[in-house]
Amino acid sequence: MQVETSKCPWCGNTIPQAKFVEIEGRIRTEEKRKLAQAEASFKKQYEEQARLQIERETMLSNGQKHKPQSFRPKEITHSKKRRLRRPRKLL
User: Fold this and answer.
1) In angstroms, rounded to a whole number, what is the distance separating the alpha carbons of residues 27 and 90?
2) Minimal CA–CA distance to 23: which of 36, 4, 38, 6?
3) What is the distance in angstroms between the CA of the first residue and the CA of the last residue of the chain?
4) Predicted model pTM
Protein backbone atom coordinates (compact mmCIF):
# COMPACT_ATOMS: atom_id res chain seq x y z
CA MET A 1 0.00 0.00 0.00
CA GLN A 2 1.48 3.31 -1.11
CA VAL A 3 0.69 6.60 0.64
CA GLU A 4 0.19 9.68 -1.52
CA THR A 5 2.88 12.27 -0.90
CA SER A 6 3.31 15.94 -1.68
CA LYS A 7 5.95 18.57 -1.15
CA CYS A 8 5.61 20.81 1.89
CA PRO A 9 4.90 24.41 0.76
CA TRP A 10 7.11 25.77 3.56
CA CYS A 11 10.20 23.58 3.55
CA GLY A 12 9.94 21.51 0.35
CA ASN A 13 10.22 18.13 2.13
CA THR A 14 8.12 15.18 1.00
CA ILE A 15 5.15 14.75 3.35
CA PRO A 16 1.99 12.62 3.41
CA GLN A 17 -1.02 14.06 1.57
CA ALA A 18 -3.03 14.37 4.82
CA LYS A 19 -0.30 16.52 6.39
CA PHE A 20 -0.10 18.59 3.19
CA VAL A 21 -3.83 19.32 3.35
CA GLU A 22 -3.49 20.32 7.02
CA ILE A 23 -0.57 22.68 6.30
CA GLU A 24 -2.34 24.15 3.29
CA GLY A 25 -5.40 24.83 5.48
CA ARG A 26 -3.27 26.65 8.06
CA ILE A 27 -1.64 28.75 5.35
CA ARG A 28 -5.04 29.63 3.87
CA THR A 29 -6.39 30.61 7.31
CA GLU A 30 -3.37 32.81 8.01
CA GLU A 31 -3.62 34.51 4.60
CA LYS A 32 -7.34 35.21 5.13
CA ARG A 33 -6.54 36.77 8.52
CA LYS A 34 -3.85 38.98 7.00
CA LEU A 35 -6.19 40.02 4.19
CA ALA A 36 -8.94 40.92 6.67
CA GLN A 37 -6.48 43.06 8.66
CA ALA A 38 -5.29 44.85 5.51
CA GLU A 39 -8.87 45.49 4.38
CA ALA A 40 -9.80 46.88 7.81
CA SER A 41 -6.75 49.14 7.74
CA PHE A 42 -7.56 50.45 4.25
CA LYS A 43 -11.20 50.98 5.19
CA LYS A 44 -10.24 52.95 8.30
CA GLN A 45 -7.80 55.05 6.29
CA TYR A 46 -10.39 55.70 3.56
CA GLU A 47 -13.04 56.69 6.10
CA GLU A 48 -10.63 59.13 7.76
CA GLN A 49 -9.75 60.71 4.42
CA ALA A 50 -13.43 60.99 3.51
CA ARG A 51 -14.20 62.60 6.88
CA LEU A 52 -11.41 65.14 6.42
CA GLN A 53 -12.57 65.91 2.88
CA ILE A 54 -16.11 66.54 4.11
CA GLU A 55 -14.78 68.82 6.87
CA ARG A 56 -12.69 70.75 4.34
CA GLU A 57 -15.63 71.21 1.98
CA THR A 58 -17.89 72.27 4.85
CA MET A 59 -15.28 74.71 6.09
CA LEU A 60 -14.80 76.21 2.63
CA SER A 61 -18.54 76.51 2.02
CA ASN A 62 -18.95 78.30 5.37
CA GLY A 63 -16.20 80.77 4.47
CA GLN A 64 -13.79 79.77 7.22
CA LYS A 65 -10.17 80.50 6.42
CA HIS A 66 -8.31 78.81 9.24
CA LYS A 67 -7.68 75.11 9.28
CA PRO A 68 -8.85 73.20 12.33
CA GLN A 69 -6.31 71.19 14.34
CA SER A 70 -7.29 67.94 12.62
CA PHE A 71 -5.94 69.23 9.27
CA ARG A 72 -2.47 69.95 10.58
CA PRO A 73 0.09 67.30 9.74
CA LYS A 74 1.42 65.28 12.66
CA GLU A 75 4.94 66.41 11.85
CA ILE A 76 4.06 70.04 12.48
CA THR A 77 2.33 69.23 15.74
CA HIS A 78 5.26 67.07 16.79
CA SER A 79 7.86 69.71 15.91
CA LYS A 80 5.88 72.35 17.79
CA LYS A 81 5.89 70.15 20.89
CA ARG A 82 9.63 69.68 20.50
CA ARG A 83 10.17 73.43 20.36
CA LEU A 84 8.09 73.99 23.47
CA ARG A 85 10.03 71.46 25.53
CA ARG A 86 12.74 72.77 27.76
CA PRO A 87 16.21 72.25 26.37
CA ARG A 88 18.13 69.50 28.09
CA LYS A 89 20.91 70.59 30.36
CA LEU A 90 24.32 69.40 29.35
CA LEU A 91 26.67 68.02 32.00
Assistant:
1) 54
2) 6
3) 80
4) 0.51
